[in-house]
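Input sequence (151 aa), recorded before submission:
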Amino acid sequence: MFGIGTTELLVIILVALVVLGPSKLPEIMKTVGKGFAEFKRLSTDVKSTLDAEVSRAEREERRKEKELAEKKARVREESAKKAEKDEASLVEERAEAEQANLSKQVDDAAPTRPEAQAGPVVDAQTRGPVAEAAFKAPTSADKDKSGGDEA
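Predicted structure, token format:
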């Protein structure tokens, strides 16, 4: 028990018998046995209390870790949703900008003269383009070039 061998225990009992006498020795052994039993019971109680506290602390730590992991997962999920929304709005803005740019390019490329808007003039007989000058109304500058004598 305490590293005491059989011979050492016998020596201790013989010394106690000689010192205390045979009448008090059984009573003292009974008291020592009760003391050891009480010590063992107290040590078992302390051990079980410590084990209960350690397991409670471990449960609390696991619960905190789980809550932290859930919170991180929620934050990641919210960040991903926000990123998707931001990306969708960015794509929508780019599409709108591209549509506006195309509309501007179409407006810039569209001819502003009524003659040009109708398309090229084609001669029905030759099926080739006819010079624009043939269809222009004579202006005062054209009248000056031709001499201005029309009457």
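Checked by second reader. The first helix runs from residue 6 to 20.
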